[in-house]
Design goal:
heterodimer; A: alpha+beta; SH3 type barrels; Alpha-Beta Plaits; five-stranded antiparallel beta sheet; four-stranded antiparallel beta sheet; B: alpha+beta; 16 helices; 42% helix; WYL_dom (chain A)
């Protein structure tokens, strides 16, 4: 299997697009067949009818044997790739429909029949779970709710123009919540630059290089609810990185290291380390 | 025909994605071990590919490529780096001809001669007209990659496009298929073929009644989207594994400053490269979810060898080896990897850790995360405030960052040497922030 096929060439693809031709190679069908055969998500993603249809279409294509030669390490347990509500909610997004949701919140309390507009469905690669991003009419807020916390959902018609307005509003809300942190790679660890940058590659970021001091800094752009994850990444990298801008992050790192040393009994509570 | 190598483009894009705008042209070229002239040429070529694939992107000459491919979470879930796999060079006349052929077979099944006539009528003037032999070899190629099929029946054979995947599904089923492909390409490996398929389906749906918003309902948080660059080598290596063949390549350890060396035939321009010629027998590929990186594990003269996929260039297959011996080596490696947190094949050691539950009112996110990411480790003891987690791993180096990421919710108990290391690291980290 060669991923650099002539047929994938960009000029051919854009010409096919102009003529409205759909083109699919056996490479792609083989991949699809493998995903359908090897993954339990297939049963959640299609009706039985569609699944049978797909299997018939893909019958002449071979399966990939990648899994017998590939080992995946440090993988989170895959609780679910599909959620039973995914298709339903996706339909509502497609139809620009409003929804009425009944869902549980952190305290265990249940909020019944809340009106809103579904915006997007988000899968966290870390938690391996689906979330609904939506707009809550009465509170006029942007909400993030785990699919597994949703008890029921039903469609509630709204004007399509209203949905468009709300999507724009959500865009503005998200933009206004963006903030930045600057993290310096401690120069002694420049050798490990590639690994450190890989660790930050799941964030929106810019890298700066100061050639006079041979120092790299990473400017991470993130939303408020992403600070916890960024902190776990910074702790993950340990001595290799230092927060240089972002008071909240700095304070949290000081707290984490002080508390950790207390756990180890190296310093007693409230005591400062004498260097 | 020389096989086109994409090493330069891959290294180029990787550096661009990882260092997003940190370097000047000069610095960038130096680190890749190429001239500034080659740097400019490569940028132009990549920009051409991008602009034909993504008409919506800003196309002023001044737009920096790094800006163009800067990862922006809410904008679009199209994996921009996919354009790497669209970069194979094809002659203008050939790309025109192949597109014409496919468009013609899209409407009806046609014979070679009918296709030849059609081509001669529709090719823009100035392009060489194809002969029967050319058309036959085009059809053979298209049949090989599974894009068209020969209809059953007597000669002369008729060919039609093989698009049952979209032709026999209803609109609703197509949406289900597109969603499934999107979810699987983003959450599973390998994924390049999935992304290519997603691309085709998406364009097909957008030709219908669908809006952009309806077509992109899913987001994937904390996803290592640059991982697809290394899939470029994956299938070459899988082929070698399947046929028990050794491979040769030029390897750049990621710790070296240079990540690519141009092949200079002119001795005047020959320079010392930091790359090392390697010959080795591939046994297994490892994908590391912690960093979104790929490794090749192989058998070399000194036993097990480990290579980072990102450092491999100019890869070529070599001779094959005996089956029984190969199986033996593979089993030995599998046995050694059983307790690797990632790829460490050192001596197994038992690590004991105490995790502290968060305060009363909160859900126990510490335990949730340990159960989710703790691989084969076990919780062996629990009380109201904490729990003990035990795992046997090859060495403590690879598990250490994961344990450290828990901050003060985690206390290493054993081995005692490991405990001391953790204390020393926390002291140092604390010193970074004491003057806050």
């Amino acid at each position: 299997m060669n991923l650099f096929e002539k047929i994938f060439n960009h000029q051919i693809i854009s010409r096919l697009e102009d003529s409205g031709t759909f083109m699919v190679t056996s490479h792609e069908r083989t991949w699809l067949k493998t995903m359908l055969e090897h993954h339990p998500a297939a049963a959640e993603a299609f009706t039985l009818d569609t699944l049978n249809k797909l299997r018939t279409i893909l019958e002449p294509d071979p399966l990939m044997d990648t899994s017998s030669h590939l080992i995946e390490k440090a993988r989170s347990m895959e609780k679910q790739v599909y959620h039973p509500l995914l298709r339903t909610l996706r339909q509502h997004i497609l139809n620009k429909s409003g929804v009425r949701l009944t869902y549980a919140i952190k305290s265990g309390r249940v909020n019944s029949e809340q009106s809103g507009v579904p915006y997007k469905l988000e899968y966290s690669m870390v938690k391996r779970e689906w979330y609904l991003l939506w707009y809550h009419f009465r509170h006029r807020t942007f909400m993030i709710t785990r699919l597994k916390k949703i008890h029921s959902v039903r469609a509630e018609p709204i004007e399509p123009s209203m949905a468009d307005g709300i999507f724009r509003k959500i865009g503005r809300m998200l933009d206004s919540r963006k903030s930045e942190a600057v993290i310096e790679i401690v120069r002694d660890y420049n050798e490990e630059l590639s690994r450190i940058l890989y660790a930050f590659s799941s964030f929106e970021k810019d890298v700066e290089y100061d050639s006079d001091n041979d120092t790299y800094t990473v400017r991470v752009c993130l939303l408020g609810d992403e600070f916890e994850y960024l902190l776990s990444k910074i702790r993950f990298l340990g001595k290799r990185v230092r927060v240089v801008e972002g008071d909240y992050l700095k304070r949290r790192m000081l707290e984490a290291s002080t508390k950790a040393l207390e756990r180890y009994g190296v310093i007693s509570e409230g005591e400062e380390l004498s260097s | 025909m020389a096989k086109e190598s994409f090493d330069k483009e891959i290294q180029f894009l990787r550096m661009l994605v990882l260092t997003s705008g940190a370097f000047s042209r000069q610095q960038f070229a130096e680190r890749l071990g190429i001239s500034v002239h080659t740097f400019d040429k490569t940028i132009r070529r990549l920009k051409d590919v991008i602009s034909s694939m993504h008409q919506h992107l800003p196309q002023e000459q001044s737009a920096e490529l790094s800006e163009t491919i800067r990862f922006s979470y809410y904008d679009s879930t199209d994996p921009l780096l996919l354009f790497l796999f669209r970069a194979k060079s094809v002659k203008e006349s050939e790309s025109q001809r192949i597109s014409l052929l496919l468009a013609a077979m899209n409407e009806q099944a046609l014979t070679t001669m009918e296709l030849l006539d059609m081509c001669c009528d529709s090719l823009p003037s100035g392009l060489p007209l194809p002969d029967e032999k050319t058309i036959r070899s085009d059809l053979k190629y298209l049949e090989e990659v599974g894009v068209i099929l020969k209809e059953p029946g007597p000669r002369p054979y008729r060919y039609r496009i093989q698009d049952d995947l979209v032709r026999s599904l209803s609109e609703e089923e197509l949406i289900d298929l597109y969603d499934f492909v999107d979810v699987m390409a983003n959450t599973q490996v390998p994924s390049v073929q999935g992304y290519l398929l997603r691309d085709g389906l998406k364009k097909h749906l957008l030709r219908g009644e669908f809006e952009q918003h309806a077509i992109e309902p899913f987001l994937y948080k904390y996803h290592y989207y640059s991982r697809i660059l290394d899939e470029a080598h994956l299938f070459t290596l899988l082929h070698a594994i399947r046929h028990r063949r050794r491979v040769r390549f030029l390897y750049f350890s990621p710790k070296s400053e240079k990540s690519y060396a141009s092949k200079n035939t002119n001795p005047l321009f020959e320079r010392d490269t930091a790359g090392k010629a390697q010959k080795t027998l591939p046994l297994k590929i490892v994908y590391d979810h912690q960093y979104g990186r790929w490794y090749l594990l192989s058998h070399g003269r000194e036993g097990i060898r480990k290579y980072r996929m990102e450092g491999i260039t100019q890869i070529e297959e070599d001779e094959s080896v005996d089956e029984a011996w190969y199986e033996e080596k593979k089993n030995e490696l599998e046995e050694k990897l059983r307790y690797s947190w990632l790829i460490d094949t050192g001596k197994p050691v038992t690590v004991r850790v105490r995790f502290y539950n968060p305060g009363d009112s909160e859900p126990n996110f510490v335990k949730e995360r340990v159960l989710l990411q703790g691989q084969w480790g076990q919780i062996v003891l629990e009380d109201e405030y904490s729990f003990i987690y035990e795992i046997t791993v090859n060495g403590t180096t690879e598990i250490k960052p994961w344990l450290r990421s828990f901050g003060s919710s985690c206390e290493v108990l054993e081995p005692i040497r490991f405990r001391r290391e953790m204390i020393a690291e926390w002291k140092e980290i604390k010193s970074y922030y004491e003057s806050v």
